[in-house]
Amino acid sequence: MFLKLAKNIIEQEAKALLLLSKSLDTNYSKILNLISKTKGNIILSGVGKSGHIARKIASTLTSTGTPAFFIHPTEASHGDLGSIRKKDILCLLSKSGKSKELLDLLYFANNNNIKSILISSNKKSKLAQISSYNLILPNVKEVGKNNIAPTTSTTMMLALGDAIALSVSEFKEFSKDMFGELHPGGNIGAKFIKVKDIMHNKKSIPLTSENTNMKDVIVKITNKNFGCIGIINKSNFLVGIITDGDLRRHMKDNLLHKKAKDVMSQKPKIITEDSFVSDALKIINDYKITSLFVIKDFKSKKPTGIIHLHDCLRVKR
Question: What is the C-alpha separation between 52 and 60, in angstroms, rounded?
Answer without folding.
Answer: 13
